[in-house]
Design goal:
about 325 residues; alpha/beta; 2 domains; 7-stranded mixed beta sheet; 4-stranded antiparallel beta sheet; about 30% helix
């Protein structure tokens, strides 16, 4: 059943959880009350780089580790089905993002133990896998739950992508030189367990690269729940403090957590702006159309609330 077809299950089957990073049970520090209209959930609600819907589960700030998280979340079965069935309409944007990721990786590649093996969790259409190949990693594996996203990969990359939810038992332990999980932590129901599992897959000295949203960024605080990161598919959103806590608890030495800038065309930035739909839709369509394409294609590089974490498995 698709995400749209099972939308009524989303609210009916929510179950409680403690903070998924530090296990605190204090969920009294509410930042955003729940705002979900199940009738609006469709095949794109769990897609990457979608147009913001401004719906979210109840979100609270953990007093123990500073994580912003939903204390009641859908079942793992619902989420697996939703991500498997979700649509994919951001092929070009994924390639722009991958270029930014690859540049960041190239700047830090000297800290890797070697280039024997790389794993990307949340590989999408394989855009970053092509850069890993260009950077001469010998073994490359991508994991991607969305069938549509994986099917959008170029034919020469599809064989590198396993179309499934991440399961560490399907991968060799203490094997990978590099693991990448960009814009992934927000979607996982147990992020600490995920990080601990990733640590077990890295060889000694191996590196984990994460790009994640930062809800403490000034722009995100200014926009509030009109920020695109406050979204129904995000079960938690990190800050530098909570991400550092989670990584260290999972056994990593945190080398760096820094602001991260993306480069996208103007039309994509317009798609994310919190402006009236009656104005945004025709403006976005014009920028993507034949008459406005030149302006809409202007590339803009900006740091608008993402952060890059570079963490190493202790030897």
């Amino acid at each position: 059943m698709s995400a749209a077809g099972s939308s009524s299950n989303l609210l009916r089957d929510l179950s409680g959880r403690a903070c998924p990073v530090c296990d605190s049970t204090d969920d009294s520090h509410e930042m955003y009350p729940q705002r979900v209209d199940a009738s609006r959930i469709d095949a794109m609600s769990y897609a990457s780089r979608k147009q913001p819907e401004y719906m979210s589960l109840r979100m609270v700030v953990c007093p123990g580790c500073n994580l912003l998280y939903a204390p009641r979340t859908p079942s793992a079965q619902f989420l697996a089905r939703a991500y498997a069935d979700t649509g994919f309409d951001s092929d070009a944007e994924a390639r722009y993002a991958a270029t930014s990721y690859a540049l960041a990786l190239a700047d830090r590649a000297s800290s890797l133990p070697d280039r024997a093996s790389a794993l990307e969790i949340g590989a999408g259409n394989g855009a970053l896998l092509s850069h890993l190949r260009a950077q001469r990693f010998e073994q490359i594996i991508g994991v991607e739950p969305s069938r549509d996203a994986a099917q959008s990969a170029p034919a020469d990359l599809r064989g590198l992508i396993r179309v499934e939810c991440f399961d560490p038992t399907n991968l060799p332990t203490e094997h990978f030189s590099l693991i990448i999980a960009n814009q992934t932590l927000e979607h996982i129901d147990e992020p600490f367990k995920f990080l601990a599992a990733v640590n077990g897959l890295l060889k000694p000295g191996g590196v984990l690269m994460i790009v994640s949203h930062n809800y403490r960024h000034w722009l995100m605080r200014l926009l509030g729940r009109r920020s695109p990161i406050i979204d129904i598919e995000h079960l938690q959103v990190f800050s530098p403090a909570s991400l550092s806590y989670a990584l260290r608890r999972a056994g990593f030495e945190v080398a760096d957590i820094v602001p991260f800038a993306n480069s996208y065309p103007l039309h994509y930035w317009i798609r994310l702006l919190p402006m009236p739909r009656l104005l945004k839709q025709p403006l976005h369509a014009w920028l993507r159309g034949s008459t406005g394409r030149r302006i809409g294609g202007w590339m803009l590089r900006a740091s608008v609330g993402n952060m890059l974490a570079w963490a190493q498995k202790t030897r």
